[in-house]
Amino acid sequence: MNQPTYDGPPDYRAVGRHEVFPETSHDQTERYNFLAHLNRHLAHSVMPGVAEAYAARVEPAFRETHGRPPSRRREVRKALAADSLHQTWSALRRNTMEMRQQAGLSVVLPQLGDLISKARHLIPQGRLRLKPEMQPPEYIAAVDHHCMPGSYYAERTADDVSGAANYDSGMFVTTGGMLGRYTDGGGRGVVEYIQRHNPDWRPRRILDLGCGLGHNVLPMAAAFPNAEIVAVDVGAPMLRYGTARAASLGIDNVTFVQADATDLSEFEDGSFDWIQSTMFLHETSCKALRRILAECRRLIAPGGLVIHIEQPRYDDDMPVFEQAMRDWDAFNNNEPFWTKLHEVDLDQYMIDAGFKPEELLHGGVTAPPDGALFPDAAEDDAEDYGRKAAWHITGARVAA
Ligand SMILES: C[S@@+](CC[C@H](N)C(=O)[O-])C[C@H]1O[C@@H](n2cnc3c(N)ncnc32)[C@H](O)[C@@H]1O
Hints:
The chain is an alpha/beta fold. The chain has helices spanning 26-66, 73-81, 84-108, 112-122, 138-141, 162-174, 185-197, 217-223, 236-248, 286-299, 320-326, 328-332, 338-343, 346-352, and strands at residues 128-129, 205-209, 228-233, 254-258, 272-278, 300-310, 360-366, 390-397. It folds into 2 domains: 24-124 and 138-165; 176-397, 3-Layer(aba) Sandwich (Rossmann fold), CATH 3.40.50. The radius of gyration is 21 Å and the shape is globular. The protein starts with 25 loop residues before the first helix and ends with a strand. S-adenosylmethionine (SAM) binds at residues 137, 152, 186, 210-212, 215-216, 232-235, 238, 260-262, 278-280, 283-284, 288.
């Protein structure tokens, strides 16, 4: 008889560690495990019920009232908001975000002194450039993104790394391990994409925009050890922690720079042959986005490659129910630019920024499953929550 196979989230004890990774006690580890299982339960067992409730009662009730099916995401969102199962799913999901953040802070804050001193010792000379006078962009400073207290910018104390340590410590829980032990599935997917489409290409200078604590830029640095990589972000705690983390993981070709991607005037025109971002654009704004793309056009070298990785745009071939569910984060998880980014015509923005229509490129990136977490995943081609994640690429290969 076939034994049932376990397909739940991996145990937190499998998370990828390094010298600034926060330690967890037994109870803290199990709290994280509980949250990962709750997330999984919501996605696997409760969310399908929301789809059924939509088909069985929400959509028919809308039709009855309006004489037509909902045709816009906003209509679906409002109709769903009155449904009890959707309310249950949504409230639980919001609570998992809150609980994950509080769990992370309860791990990080008691050991913050140790983490700061480890980071200070690990940061190599010349690999971190901070600008103490720099303020986070106004368009996002007031928001605690995805319920993260202080977002990416809070400085709780001198040389603070707490926000980044919290982010790193709990991301494995939020994603159920699907981005791998080191939460670097996006970066590993981009490397796979580059190697598949440009096998002989050896970029010399790479710019990563909105690098956060560097989860996704490190696989690129490892894949191109002779390249010089500049990773920019506005959040000093992310950059301090990221520089220490990179050093601890043996990566020595990334310089972390505090800079606003809307104004990168400290770098010369045409000085990077690969500019990329992962999950960055949705945390900007329309105005900032235009400036960022213009900076990409200015900074890219002739023949260079620009790629931005994000979730797919909401267009007409995505059912309105799916659009509404994907849009949950905008209204319930403090992602103010989420909806707008998924509506804008990024190609047109790229063209407005100076890229030629024939230079534009599109593609897909999938996070390769981490074999250490999911040993049978290589044989498993099915799209499966908990093992695979996929994003869209919008970019350009500029003329040589
Ligand atoms: C969702 S995180 C993505 C981090 C990273 N790219 C990753 O894949 O893990 C978005 C990051 O963008 C940064 N950010 C937002 N606006 C920025 C700007 N104008 N310039 C530079 N960084 C910015 C935030 O501080 C945050 O660290």
